[in-house]
Amino acid sequence: MFDMISNIFKNLSSKPATRKYPFEKRETFKDSRGSVKGVDIDTCIFCGICARKCPSDAIAVDRNSKSWEIDPFKCVVCGVCAEVCPKKCLFMDEQYSASAYSKGKNKFVQQPKPAEEEPGKVSA
Ligand code: SF4
Ligand code: SF4
Q: Compositional bias (Basic and acidic residues) at which positions (predicted)?
C-alpha cells in the first residue's frame, strides 16, 4: 500500500515519459531520414532510376510529360532514390512528414524551357 502511494506521488511530480506532440517536437539529428523532400525538377533527366530502385513503388516518372511524382504514403523513407539519382537532384528532409487528413501524391512537372516552346525559333 505504501509503495503504491509513493509511486502515485512520484508519477505526479515527475515529467511525462512521452512528448506532447505536435506541440513539443523532437529535434532531428544529422543525416536522419525524415521524409523525401522532393526533386529539383529542372535538373531531373527523367531517367527513371529512382522509380525502378524504389522498394515500395512510391515514385512514378514520365519522360513524355516530364513529370515526377511521389506517393508519400507508400514511401518507407529508405533513402535509396536519393542515393541512386545520377543527377543528385532528389533530396531527403530531416523532418518527418506531418500528419495528414487525406492521402495525396506530390507531383512535379518540368516547364518547357524558352527554346523548347517554339521549335525552330533561334534566339538572338
Ligand atoms: S525513400 Fe525509399 S521508399 Fe521512399 S521514395 Fe525513395 S526509394 Fe522509395
Ligand atoms: S533518378 Fe534522378 S534524374 Fe533520374 S528520374 Fe529520378 S530524380 Fe530524375
A: 114-124
Within a domain: residue 75?
A: yes
Type and span of the H or E element at 67: strand 67-70
Task: Quote the DSSP letter at residue 95.
Answer: S
What is the number of helices (H) and of strands (E) in the chain?
4, 5
Q: What's the domain range around 80?
A: 44-93
pLDDT tens profile 2-58: 889 999 998 889 988 898 887 888 888 887 889 999 999 999 999 999 999 999 999
How close is the Cα of 9 to the center of ligand 2, in Å? 57
Supply the residue whose CA is at minimum distance from atom 8 of ligand 1: 54
Q: Whose CA is nearest to atom 4 of ligand 2?
A: 47
Domain of 70: which CATH number? 3.30.70.20
Pocket probe mutation, ligand 2, options 42, 47, 92, max atoms within 8 Å of Cβ: 47
Residue 84, in any domain of the structure: yes
What is this structure's pTM?
0.78
Domain total for the chain? 1
For the segment 62-101, what is each residue's pLDDT rounded down to a tens digit?
999 999 999 999 999 999 999 999 999 999 998 888 888 8
Distance CA 25, CA 104 (A): 24
